[in-house]
Amino acid sequence: LIDAGTDRHVWAEQYDRTLNDAFAVQSDIARRIVTAVGAALTSAEQGRLTAPPTGNAEAYRLYVRAHEYLGRPGALQSNVDSAVALLERALALDPGFALAHAALSEAHGRLFWFRYDPTPARAARQMEEAQAALRLAPNLPQAHAAMGLALYWARRDYSGALDEFHVALQGMPNDAWIWAWISAVYRRLGNWTEALAGFEKATQLDPRNANLFLDQGGNTYAFLHRYGDAVRAYDRALELAPDLYAAAIQKGWIYARWQGRLDTLRAVLSRLPATAELGGAGTKAAQQAELYLWAREPDSLLQLLAATRPGIFEWQILVAPGALYAAWAHELQGNPAAARAAFDSARVLLDSVEQRRPDDWRVHAGRGLALAGLGRRREALLEARWLRQSVVYRQDSMESRIVAQERAWILARAGEGDSALAEIGRLLAGPSQLTAQVLRMDPRFDPLRADPRFQALLAR
């Protein structure tokens, strides 16, 4: 232990122990350092230093490996799946290992939140593991953090999540992830000032965490239309993790929304491997389909769909059959018969998905667009109404803006210009992904282009 100001050696010791003694060594080092620097520990801190998290060294080794997988950039499904497998092995060795239960709760939550497995059963697993951690160790900060995440991701109980995160902070005030989760919850509550404050605190504590710059940084700035700041945050994420493809893609979309330029995104996608994992951004083919749609390149879009045969494109904020993109491509080609057949294929597929996921707003949005494309106006408007009444639309100040944009598409295509323009005006007035450049490029807004109010909106 060295005093950096004077280069004075304060304390040193050598340890030669077995792995089973690791917790005792850890506690001893911590106590000696506290004494050497003249600090004092509370009774709770002393208890945490002396109590080993598990009596099984192999279980702890598996937990540490899993924790590393969870911290890797991008929240990729392969990494989360690896963490789940390791934590389940750890808990098979020591079912009373509270830290492992807390980490497993987070892992299940990521699979649910990033829509790798958006089923109620997965959300229930997240809550069950958080409850197990708290039952085993009621004062463990990580257990309270896990419960905060379960309330946030599985229940969308944002105030309850904040309460749990602040309890966790009492024991772990310098944990960057807790500050990041607090930042994320404040976005859902529409408190963007506190969201950015949480991001700043998290990056002060962990300035080499690429995930923080991707999500709490870049994605927050993007919603606030602070595009220069968003680009800088994505660039920092890429400096720290050059293969964090989601950051490069988000940066490409920033230039599209900000300046109407698709060249950055096109260049990013041209460099990506076909099988690149993009986390919550889905797949390369899904991103290419959206790019070709915005660029009004129907031939390229249909060629992509023929080559990849996607079935359903799905990422964190989208469930859309490839047939839906095919329908829009046929519309751009001026082929209404082919478009209608594709819209109907998309509807049939989404009908089956809705039966399994009746509460998934992404499915209702896709189904509403397919019905509107078929001219089934009344049914399309029922889906628009469902979206407006959904928990996400009513209670989530961030994701509701994405739902609202989907509603605007449905309303526009169903001939409800007044309602569509009202939704668009609300989105342009506050944090959202909608910009004048999006309105100019995206063909899903084409039914509004002849409306003088839409033209005036663009001019303004």
Can you give a write-up of this model?
The chain starts with a strand and ends with a helix. The longest helix has 21 residues. The model has no long low-confidence stretch (mean pLDDT 95). The protein has a two-stranded antiparallel sheet. Strands 3-4 form a two-stranded antiparallel sheet. It is built from 25 helices and four strands. It is 70% helix and 3% strand. Helix 9 runs antiparallel to helix 10 and helix 15 packs antiparallel against helix 16. The radius of gyration is 25 Å and the shape is elongated. The protein is mostly helical and 460 residues long. A hairpin with a 4-residue loop joins strand 1 and strand 2.
Q: What is the element layout, followed by pairings?
A:
Elements: E1 2-3, E2 8-9, H1 22-36, H2 43-50, H3 57-71, H4 77-93, H5 98-113, H6 120-136, H7 141-154, H8 158-171, H9 176-189, H10 192-205, H11 210-223, H12 227-240, H13 245-259, H14 263-271, H15 284-294, H16 298-308, E3 312-315, E4 318-321, H17 322-333, H18 336-356, H19 361-373, H20 377-389, H21 391-395, H22 399-413, H23 417-428, H24 436-441, H25 452-459
Antiparallel strand pairs: 1-2, 3-4
